[in-house]
Fold these 3 entries.
Entry 1:
Amino acid sequence: MAVYARLLPFLRPYRWQILAGLFCLLLATPASLVHPWVWKYIVDDVVTPRRPDRLPAALGVMFGVHLFGAILAALRSNLLEKVGQRFVQDIRLAVYRRIQQQSLGYLQNQRAGDLTSRVMGDVDVLQEVVRNGTDSVLHNAYSFLIVAGSLIAMNPLLGAITIAPIGVVAVLVRVFNVRVKLLYRAGRDRLGDVGARLQENLLGMIVVKAFAREEFESSRFREATEAYRKVQTHAVNARSIFFPVVYFVGFISNILAVGVGAWLILENRFTVGGLVAYRGYWWQLYAPVQQLAQINDLIQRGAAAGSRVFELLDTPITVEDAPDAVELTGVRGRVRWEHVEFGYSDRPVLNGIELDVAPGQAVAFVGSSGAGKSTLVNLIARFWDPTSGRILIDGHDVRAVTQASLRSHIAMVQQETFLFNGTVLENARYGRPEATLEEVRAAAAAANALDFVEHELPGGWDTAIGERGVKLSGGQKQRISIARAFLTDPEILILDEATSAVEPESEYLIQQALERLMKGRTTFIISHRLSMVRGADRIVVLDGGKVAEQGNHEELLRRGGLYASMYRLQVGHLSGLLEEKPGQPAELGAVS
């Protein structure tokens, strides 16, 4: 099948181990199938003529051949098991890298739980096929050929009668495959739905509990699991019919073998020893057939899982390095948008943006939600590519340089700070793992984080902060994020609502830290905080995906345009709040 043909490149690095395993298989399988011939010899040439002197040699042959086969089988299993483990690591890494290479636009359209299901569950099924399925198919097919040849060699007529029902099994396998192929793919998809629902609920558990929606989410999770159960039930029904029918066909062959074999003995055309050997071989004839039927079921499940894995690997990468991309070095920080347009599949976002920002300038973007503020700065780091136009850094089109070198000159401090499940030190060093502890401490001091890390956290820098930094407050997480940015020492800084999700007592400390971080860097600010926007060298007002106006705070107020209107609305709202809460610092206001 096409899916399994595509696995060959992943197995090619281990071809010598696989060939060694197959060589062991070629020798071990015949060794495990010699015994019925020895049984025939013992019955016809030892027991019947009463020659006990021949028995030790016959038993010795059985022991030696079996020991030889067992050693080779163990070696084969060891080799192929290790290949299976390395294969699954390689393909899982390939899928993970492919996901990493995708643009944010692609990832935002996917469900994290479904991607996790493909990387983990679907790849595990492929591992099971490669590790057990492939070995079992070869072993059982080889065993069947040896046994079928032995049966025909003992008695051509009896051999032909015994083997004939296998044609019926072949037809049954074909019908079964057509039935379950779609069922197994649907089952993998529904399992992905279950994983996506579970992951979303776990990440949003605070919201679920805050709104007392446990029963509602339980109902939605039940619906997802019920859809998966129904598909699996259809697959179970198919298997429940298929396997018993295969076994029954095998039993009919058993009846034919015993009946015809006994008749041949009565007609002096066969020996008792031959029938004993035949009975031993019959089991080894239909055991592989039954196992192949089960392995076929595994192969169909593997094909369904593999199709989901290769869907990820085949998804085109929309943002990738050009073949002739160069390293971006010696950055000063000049950023220019030249007639940049951008839109998602369902709506346009930016329309003809023309901006030129000098090195070291601080530029703030304001506008209503959906005006394109975050999109505008995300294009700098090539999280997306413009639909048309281009973005230049120091005269270099960002699409002409490598993404890694581009992003090494950019740092981002975002509204929703993401910290990994590890220690404070690991998260602070994330952008520069080789940094010394003293360098980390200096960055933390500049970010106003040193004091709380070393005097408030129980383990200091070695404190485990939990998944997404749940053991830290919003302000503490943000200061760790700022320390992380200080440590990378970028030429271009992006602050995307960096103070909007922190507690008031942390805001002043964070603003101080951000002011230090901005010095000497080209900075782009998206913020509703007056203190962040008002102090920018230039404020760019976006409206409907276009630049409506730009200038500094005082210039825009004098013009009386959109920014002035937004400012008056905000000031009026703030005045109302101050009347209700005297003493509230004016800097906590916001520009929409």
Note: DSSP finds 22 helices and ten strands in the chain.
Entry 2:
Amino acid sequence: MNGLARASVLLGAGTLVSRVTGLVRSIVLVAVIGSNASRVADAFMLANQLPNNIYAVISAGVLTAVIVPQIVRESARSDGGRRFLSALFTAGTVVLLVVTLVATVCAPLLIALYGAKFTPEQQALATAFAYWCLPQLFFYGLYALLGEALNARRVFGPFTWAPVINNIVSIVGFVALMLVFGSDLTDVSDWTPGMIAALGGTATAGIVLQAVVLMLFWRRTGLRVRPDFRWRGLGFRSMARLAGWTALMVVVGQVAGYVQTLVVGAASGEHPSVAVMQNAWLVFMLPYSVIVLSIGTPYFTQLSEHASGGRTDDVRADIVASIRIMGLFVVAATAALAVAAVPATRVFVNSAEGAGSAAPVLLAYLVGLIPLSVIFIVQRTFYAYDDTRTPFVFTVIQGALVIGTALLASVLLPEEWLAAGIALGQSLASIVQVLVASVLLSRRLGGIQARLWLLSLARFAGAAIPAAAAGWATFLLLGGESGWTVSDKLYGALGTALIGAVVGVVYLGALVLLRAPELRPAMGMLRRVIRRG
């Protein structure tokens, strides 16, 4: 447990710094191209999201589902898995290079598909951005491949800290662009080829360095990897069969994301659209990344070892322990961000009025934060047993609901509520997904002691009620939607931190009164963070 705690602390600290610098990056970017009702912002965000979509597939799909458990098993061989990793990296590099080249050539087609409701001028700008951004695919994939291999060898830190380099490069580049060309450049006609190259090139340069940094830490694995095209006899065929289901999951996820982007594109230039949804997702992912990934990633490595050894009781214990510890922090974060939604949104929009109209998008996403945290552990438990077919089943259900709710929003909601309606539909789909997934996992393992972690989540929710009330009262005392917390981006961040601190103190007090048994290990983890700090 101490090893898991140390790894979680290291991952949590790195993720926190990464996400904070990522927020600063977004603030600077918004200052340059706007966010709410900005056609330029929607064009760039769409183009820059294309490589991110495939990176998410590689990182959370094929790598996590198939390669990490395989590396854990291969590491037990006499060579420590060196031959396997050499061939794996060679094959992965070839595939990534081919996919990147094809995607870049198809940039106009991709933009035409995703930005079908953009104006012709906006589509042309997005296509120009895409030519600069799509090469990120190769380096995103390389970063994911290196990072997951390091995680599987219990070298957790570099994968989490490397994105900080990307954020710093982007911040410097965006600031330079703003100094040279100006700020709030929301008119499509103002963008010249030089400006497009500066913005797109800066975004891609950060991703390149992010991947290069991981290479510098490879020595910690104790393995020497070299090009190896001898791919037969290493289990790649069985891995491909397992990855086939994740590939189908990719299709489901991409179709769902495409429908969401297509629908919300109708609001671009007038109301919250692509840029607002991506920035709201960035804020939403801050607690998810810091809490869920930092705690869940070390547990997944341990869970894979227990599953490989046939120790089902230990797997159940891992599931309960990880969800209870994550839940304690996630519920608090959900309450804090919910009552501070307006000042938190002000961070990535350029006006107080824009914060008010964009805040519902963040609130809608927050409905799904707790279910998304639970599904992280449940899904990866299936992966630990080399089962990618069952996750495909409950992902299809989730994807169908995402598509259905997005289409329903396009029919029932006015354009100013499209983004919030689509985000809420995604959260509702996540709730259904986690219910189905938990039932299926319980059947596979003969129970997952759901009563224990559900009681814990209920206890946390009870403590969050007075905490949220105190946070909302603080927001009102600070002036509400017309107060200083929404008057500027910096004040929005400070206001969010202040409201969050109030929520955290009251939440902690409520847990103490409830004598929550999860409080002691959680506080122990926090003390380790402070000592390392």
Note: The chain has one domain: 2-532.
Entry 3:
Amino acid sequence: MPASKHPLIVIGHKNPNTDSICSAIAYAHLKNDFLGEAAAPFRAGNINLQTSFVLSNFGVESPELITDVYPKIMDIMIKQEALIILSEEDTLAQAEDILIKNRFSFLPVVDSEGKCAGKITAFRLAGLTREFSELALRENIFINLEKFLKSVGGRIITCSTKQTRFTGKLLINGISSEPGHEDAGSLLFVTLFDENTLIEVMEKGVKCIVVCGPEGLNGKIPEMAAKNDVCLMVSPVDILSTVLQIFLAMPIRNFIDRKHPTFKQHDLVRNVQKEIGKYNEGGFIVLDEENFIRGVITRINFLTQSRFRVVMVDHNEFSQGVEGIEEAEVVEIIDHHRLGTRNTDIPITFINKVVGSTCTIIAEMYKISGFLLDPGIAGLMLSAILSDTVILKSPTTTQLDLDMSEWLEHRAGIKLEEFGETMFDAGSALEGLDPEQIIKQDQKIYVEGEWKFSISQVEIVGFKKFFEMKNALKEKIKSIMEQGGCNFGCLMATDITRETSLLLCSGGRKILDAISYPMVEENIFEMKAVLSRKKQVLPYLLDLIRKL
């Protein structure tokens, strides 16, 4: 299925938090159930403890994980179920018939295990004329007798055992040399009816005979064939037509192209499109990792619009988006952060409001529309608002956040304050998480001029565990910062009970010395009444950067 026919992808940022996940689910639900547009929520990273608690509490499954939205071959290829695939034992006649009727340039071929054996091409079949003329010179031919007889309307007169296949040499009466005793048993003898000739070749030990134009075939010959264990067949057509059908009854296994370029179903469209220019092929087989055929790609398939259609929620900066977002068709953005997106090729829906949560914006859409709101979706959106606004205590909280929280509280059937505290308690524990998980579970990368920096945030109850892990956290921030090419990085540990954050930083002395908040320990700054990364910490750091 072309990517353009996929459901609309609704997805939040990498290292998703509760607002990122819940806004994707809620907006995809709005699109699907009320606006009539096929949409599906996805996530660009692993969910954190708080989000896991929220989803479990309201009985909602986690969105499917996608690591990138680069168009892949599997998005534009002809799928395996739509293909005609031959086996190595199918005949040349079958391959020729399918290729001519459908005007195909090739057909995929599988072996006895169902794995790709190669392909039979129209170009290869076009070169069979010379091989047909040399058929009697072959040391060995392999023939499906059942399919040969069916093709000419022939039948078996006598055969002690049901022989379905013949392997040996072809001898055509009047054209090839006479059969000898030494290899007569491995001969397929083709002749017009002539009693003396038939008696002679049977006496020499020929075990497989095709008689063309069998008028006058009397009882003596079949009796002798039965006595000598000869497989005697008749063909109602002339010798030339009979030999041609014998040739076409040969299995394709000796005629397939086994050395040809193939691609994997997860290969990127842009890479394959460059690669196919190196080959003069009508098409290419697409395989999985175990060499099973998953599809076929032709040059025509690359004309298909393969860009994914994406709605970005809870972010608008491509640096925070899923990998490949720059190659996707972004059709909508719903966010509450600073603007940092690039230009778009066409006009898009862009809703950005100064509110505490993306789910506040989506909840307002539900309210204005008058659609009946599912309690579970209401609970998800309320959870996201409480998470982003620290139970409506953050300075990012607006009147619209308060209004939507009250509206959702009634529809979700929960007590706002009580649920918020339970939710934060479920997601605040640092136990069981290593430093990398703590830093990456809610990390955002920002670019400002020549500066690239990261801010991670973790919400906790009390700073005891944080100080126990501070050295390991310092080292991991430094490592992650260097790996990501950042000038500096920091972890914002927010105690929701004290309404205070500690900022653990790593970077050059120039930026660290410019931070004016009290330093409680080396590279750890106390930020009282600071709860919001978006509205308090990010603007503060951006201002420092611009002054350096």
Note: The chain has 20 helices and 25 strands.
